[in-house]
Write a structure and sequence with these properties.
8 helices; alpha+beta; four-stranded mixed beta sheet; Immunoglobulin-like; single chain; five-stranded antiparallel beta sheet; rod-shaped; 27% strand
Length: 470
């Protein structure tokens, strides 16, 4: 029997290449949408060396190639699609009626010896080459968050709390999850605070120092040397725009007047989502602003602290011009602080002999002439304890005056105010007690507004002596 020459001649398989690089868009991610996919051009060479060109497309669950093959005319070839995997390219394999010729013999295409009767009709088989399945679309991630204004510690704000002018406020914008969405990291959001009025960001004491010995004894100097501090000013730094772009905000209330003040913040994420929060705070002016002065941070020198400094100075020093100078600077500091927040300068509202307002000024602390009540004052028969003065101008030096000014009159005034039960404009019995109780101890006296009123009166005596004896 002679060999089947046309079947034996199929020696290789050629791969068809697409007219475009790939046809990845021809896929069946959704059977319902597959019919809408347009056919793409394709061309190449069959395994038998015949050139072809045409189109390939995905229709439903089939890949369909409609091609014109050299010598065979137009052919429609099909193959099964592969889910949502795209078709990258196709191959076309060329063959006869059957591999063993049995069907050809039955169809009368071969004679009894197995030789073909005339030309055999070739067959073509198309095989798609699929690419990787597209990555699944991520599940929709919920976005959004809430924000709340809380204390710096994270504790909730008390809507009934009152803030005093001159008191430091420390707040934070706290982010919270919303509808299952994750809270964005702080470095991926921006903050915009809105605070009414012109608030104070920071306060500092400007000091100059003479002498070599610290009042608290932490540095040593020659025996007898003192350290004088000149409190030049209380410097305030305004709350700037940049300070309002952080998660936390801190400032001293300076708003004029009193009443409810609204603070708000807007937090915006990088994807454009934003959330707002508001807080209403009651602000009032304090009848006892000295209690807020402890928020002043003295940075020059670092060792300076208001209450401990006063307590230590009285424990180590006292008397003389040091007493006058030290407390005069104390008054300057407090009045400078009051000016920042719109409080008036302290006045000496104590009057000699008035119940609840200290003790009467002795004759040796009065100059010849008329006193504050308009009465004529002569030299007192009583003499001062240390320097035997009968009237103010008998003191030769300011050091002599300072000795007898401090004790007993100044000291007795502290005790008299502490013991008083009348004459105070206190809002409550508790406030009156605090004001009086502070006056009896050097560690707490500067926390009372009565301290500054009393020392203003004491300093008036020193100024009167300085005017009389330049």
């Amino acid at each position: 029997m002679k060999p089947n020459r046309w079947i034996a001649s199929l020696a290789s398989i050629a791969v068809a290449t697409l007219a475009t690089t790939t046809i990845a868009s021809i896929s069946v991610p959704d059977r319902a949408a597959a019919e809408d996919q347009a056919a793409k051009p394709v061309s190449g060479t069959t395994s038998g060396g015949k050139k072809f060109s045409g189109t390939v497309a995905v229709r439903g669950d089939q890949v369909i190639a409609e091609v014109d093959i050299e010598g065979a005319g137009k052919q429609t070839l099909t193959a099964a699609a592969s889910g949502d995997r795209p078709v990258d390219t196709i191959t076309i394999k060329e063959g006869g009626r059957s591999a063993d010729g049995a069907q050809d013999r039955l169809d009368g295409l071969l004679d009894e010896d197995g030789n073909p009767r005339g030309e055999a009709t070739p067959t073509f088989e198309m095989t798609p080459v699929f690419g990787a399945a597209p990555a699944p679309e991520p599940d929709e991630v919920p976005t959004g968050f809430d924000v709340e204004i809380v204390r710096k510690s994270g504790a909730a704000l008390d809507p009934t709390q009152e803030y005093l002018v001159g008191e430091k406020v420390e707040l934070k914008a706290q982010l919270k999850a919303k509808d299952g969405a994750p809270v964005p990291p702080i470095d991926q959001v921006s903050f915009a605070w809105r605070v009414p009025g012109s608030q104070v960001k920071d306060l500092n004491l400007e000091l100059t120092v003479t002498g070599t010995t610290l009042w608290d004894g932490r540095k040593s100097g020659a025996p007898g040397e003192d350290r004088y501090i000149d409190i030049v000013d209380v410097k305030s730094t305004a709350l700037a725009a940049a300070d309002k772009r952080a998660q936390e905000i801190a400032f001293f209330w300076k708003t004029e007047g009193s009443g409810r003040q609204e603070i708000s913040v807007t937090v915006r994420s990088r994807d454009g989502y934003s959330a707002d929060a508001k807080a209403t705070i009651l602000v009032k002016r304090s009848p006892y602003p000295a209690r807020q002065v402890f928020t002043v941070a003295a940075k020059t020198p670092a060792s300076f602290s208001i209450l401990p400094e006063h307590d230590t100075w009285h424990a180590r020093y006292g008397g003389g011009s040091r007493f006058i100078q030290f407390h005069r600077e104390w008054l300057r500091m407090y009045n400078a602080w009051r000016a920042v927040f719109g409080y008036a300068t302290v006045r000496a509202e104590f009057r000699s002999g008035r119940p609840g307002y200290g003790v009467a000024k002795p004759g040796y602390l009065r100059a010849s002439g008329r006193n504050e009540r308009g009465h004529t004052v002569r030299a007192s028969p009583a003499r001062s304890n240390t320097h035997n003065a009968r009237k103010l101008t008998d003191f030769d030096t300011i050091d002599d005056l300072g000795d007898d000014l401090e004790s007993p009159w100044h000291n007795d005034g502290h005790v008299a105010i502490w013991q008083s039960r009348t004459g105070f404009d206190a809002a409550s019995a508790e406030d009156e007690f605090k004001e009086r109780e502070n006056m009896i101890r050097t560690s707490t006296a500067p926390a009372s507004d009565l301290f500054y009123r009393w020392h203003t009166k004491v300093d008036e005596v020193a100024k009167e002596w300085e005017a009389a004896k330049p």
